[in-house]
Amino acid sequence: MDIRFHTPLTAKEQLDFGLDAPQPLALADKVRFAELDPLNHVNNKAYIEWFETLRVSYFDNLCAFCYEGLETPRLVIRSANIHYIREMVMDEIYVTTARVTRFRNTSFTIEQQLWSGDLRATLTGVMVVLRPDGSGRYPLPQTLREVFVKRDGATPEG
Known about the structure:
It contains 3 helices and 6 strands. The protein is an alpha+beta fold. It has a single domain (11-156), classed as Thiol Ester Dehydrase, Chain A, CATH 3.10.129.10.
């Protein structure tokens, strides 16, 4: 199967790759030698980097437009829970996905998945939105709240 790397995948491409449902953002890549541990399995640190790269892309491509005319926020991870399901090895092609599942006034929960034939790992993280200088929390714009609900199927909390 041919797959485009480092470019958002369409819903059809995601399903063709084996995902159980299309996500708002999915990017494909390939395991590199530098990501392996001494046992030739992907090092746990690499999974974290893959998820972080996708989170940045998720905000830049799917959320930043909601801040037009406003100060660009600082996003920080309050907590993250990674579940490693099955190992990865050299040259495996994988797809990472992201969607927001819940949100509050100044934070949101992001669900990420890693696929390579089947589900290999998941990450659930709580992202806190801060003012650009880090001086305090920064409320989510109403447009972003609406996008989370409509595009990602997220639910408001509190």
